[in-house]
Design brief:
2 copies of one chain form a homodimer. Chain A is α+β, with helices and mostly antiparallel strands. The first copy, chain A, has a single domain, classed as Arc Repressor Mutant, subunit A, CATH 1.10.10.10. Chain A is built from 4 helices and 4 strands, in the order E-E-H-H-H-E-E-H. A two-stranded antiparallel ribbon of chain A has the order 1-2. In chain A, strand 3 and strand 4 form a beta hairpin. Chain A is elongated, with a radius of gyration of 17 Å. Chain A binds a DNA duplex through helix 2, helix 3, strand 3 and strand 4.
DNA sequence: TTGCGTTATTCATTTTAAAACATAACGTTT
DNA sequence: AAACGTTATGTTTTAAAATGAATAACGCAA
């Protein structure tokens, strides 16, 4: 029997290395938008973040995971493009699976 | 069978209201140090945070929970002091219980 | 009644993080 | 060969957050 309350339990998970946070909510969304648009720039614009930062995130991700999650080309048709590697796609799925479990955990412990 | 990796799943939980985050790791530690020292200033010093901020956190907590977690007096013996209310003590315990469950969850999902 | 150490609060300064700006490089397309 | 749109990167500006400094209020203790 829960007390009525405006309080709510919330939380986040992320994948990290000894160097710090590597992949969380925001970067997963970035990866998904890169996948959908084929462009780092478009993904950044959609998320209202600077291309500069989006590009840096991609760099950090590729280095942090030891293998690229995103492969990009410059020049050519459309000016260039970016696509997710198999590992990138898998990583997104993995994060979603973990996050779904977290949401379950949070829902189960909403008894404040 | 987990792949060997330097990657690690981590996470945090907190209690929030519609106005934003209210109580997480750091503020719980602050409460505990206030409890142990009887002083907001001492607690702040121990955590290497400014009294200014510690005091503000206490204010936000007291307002956010609808009832004070910390009661303070100024003047008198020692210059003043701060103690936790029953609700403050309960809230700490509640957070620890939730956080212990989270740690379990994280440990169970370390298979990266 | 003076001093002490703390709570309480405002204001200025510093630090940090993010955004914005500016170019260069690149390879299709026209 | 010029234009285009993107990747790639360094530099500058801006905005947000934390810190530090300053001051008042307070009540006990000496």
């Amino acid at each position: 029997m829960d007390k009525s309350s405006s309080l709510r339990l919330n939380g986040r998970i992320w994948i990290e290395t000894e160097k710090g946070r590597l992949l969380g909510r925001g970067r997963v969304e970035l990866l998904e938008r890169i996948q959908a648009s084929g462009s780092i720039r478009q993904a950044a614009m959609q998320m209202k973040m600077s291309y500069r930062q989006a590009w840096e995130y991609v760099k950090i991700l590729n280095e942090g995971f030891g293998a690229p999650l995103v492969m990009s080309v410059r020049g050519g048709k459309g000016g260039g493009n970016a696509i997710l590697t198999e590992k990138g796609i898998e990583t997104i799925q993995q994060f979603h699976a973990l996050n779904a479990k977290l949401q379950l955990f949070l829902a189960e412990n909403q008894n404040l």
